[in-house]
Design goal:
By secondary structure, the protein is an alpha/beta fold. The chain is built from nine helices and nine strands. Helix content is 58%, strand content 15%.
Length: 383
């Protein structure tokens, strides 16, 4: 039995007889009422009318139900047709599905192998990543070692260049002072904490050519040995040497004879602020001691400045330009260092601010010295 047949059998249990037969029955009832109308009482007539009205309403409901049933029947038929068509399609592809299943079965070993290969690929990728990271680490470490070696070689190369320059300056200095009339003791020990050969050479030329009368020297040492001999040959020279270490003063005086025009001024160190630097090493009482004095030649190789990262050796700077004679010459040692570089820049700013024409020169050996002179003494910056 089809689905449609089952539905019709089910509906017959609830729906009234066919509509046409029902209508015929209603017609017979109307004819009967009309024939017997004269014999009926008014109450009977009303009852019959009421019954007929109920029957008419039932007829309308039956018509609606019949329409709904036909619509449902059409939908059921449509579903049956689609189901039948889909069944035919399924039957048509069953062989292909069976064949595809067989192919999948045949390929299952290969799929399993492919899964294993995928796992192997993942493992291999992990190993590759690990090897890559190790290689990067080795390359980075190797690059760091290479950079260190390059930096070491650069330092050694720069040091070699400076040593060569120092040797050249030593030869120039020795040749320059060979026939000096006033530099009798030519045994110097330059280098390390002491001034180098470029400093000795430039200082000799300044003393021999400019003939300064007022000299201020910061730092007792090899430069003092030269200035002292110059002072002995020129009795009108006033030479002040500022030194902090009393033991070094005593030792130096025992080994070297100083002329009457040379005066050692012992001053203690103190740490004082300067511009943005919180602490700079200076001489205590320096400005008060030399207030109102002017100098032709100032040699600066003290206080200790190697640990000063912002400014170093600022004592003379603080007194500029009042402490400078018209024909001034300033020499500053260790100007390859940051602290001294900044101090030189501040000295230039002071001179520019006071509208004082000047010249600046640099001489390099093992260390760098900077020479700042009055403009008319500018030839000293390029000897």
């Amino acid at each position: 039995m089809t689905l449609w047949e089952r539905i019709k059998k089910f509906l017959k249990k609830f729906l009234p007889p066919p509509v046409d037969a029902f209508n015929r029955e209603l017609g017979f009832m109307r004819d009967f009422v009309q024939k017997e109308n004269s014999a009926l009482s008014a109450e009977q007539h009303k009852e019959i009318e009421r019954v007929l009205e109920v029957l008419l309403q039932q007829q309308k409901q039956i018509n609606i139900q019949q329409w709904q049933m036909e619509s449902l029947t059409n939908k059921v038929r449509e579903v049956e047709q689609k189901t039948a068509a889909l069944g035919l399609q399924i039957e048509g592809v069953k062989p292909e599905i069976t064949a595809l299943g067989a192919q999948i079965g045949e390929l299952r070993p290969e799929i399993t192998a492919l899964d294993k290969f995928d796992e192997l690929g993942k493992t291999l990728q992990v190993n590759i990543n690990s090897d890559y990271e190790n290689l990067i680490k080795q390359m980075t470490s190797g690059e760091e070692r290479l950079n260190k070696r390059i930096e070491t070689n650069r330092i050694l190369s720069a040091d070699g260049v400076r040593n060569s320059a120092e040797a050249v300056w030593a030869e120039i200095f020795n040749n320059t002072v060979t026939n000096s009339e006033w530099l009798k003791d030519k045994t110097f020990s330059p280098g390390r904490w002491a001034v180098g050969y470029p400093y000795l050479y430039v200082m000799y030329r300044v003393l021999d050519v400019v003939r300064p009368k007022a000299i201020l020297e910061l730092g007792l040492g090899q430069s003092t040995k030269m200035i002292a001999q110059y002072s002995m040959a020129n009795t009108d020279v006033k030479h002040y040497v500022v030194e902090s270490d009393l033991n070094w003063v005593a030792f130096f005086q025992k080994e070297n004879v100083l002329p009457d025009g040379c005066k050692i001024v012992q001053m203690e160190y103190e740490m004082t602020p300067f511009k943005e630097a919180k602490e700079v090493r200076t001489y205590k009482g320096f400005s008060e001691t030399f207030a109102g004095m002017k100098f032709n030649f100032i040699s600066i190789d003290a206080p200790l400045g190697g640990d000063m990262k912002q400014y170093a050796r600022v004592d003379v700077l603080k007194m500029m330009p009042e402490c400078l004679a018209e024909d001034f010459v300033i020499m500053i040692d260790d100007c390859e260092r940051v602290g001294e570089k900044h101090t030189v820049a501040e000295m230039e700013a002071k001179l520019q601010g006071a509208a004082i024409p000047y010249k600046l020169g640099r001489y390099s050996g093992k260390k760098d010295l900077v020479l700042i002179t009055a403009e008319k003494m500018g030839f000293l910056t390029s000897m």
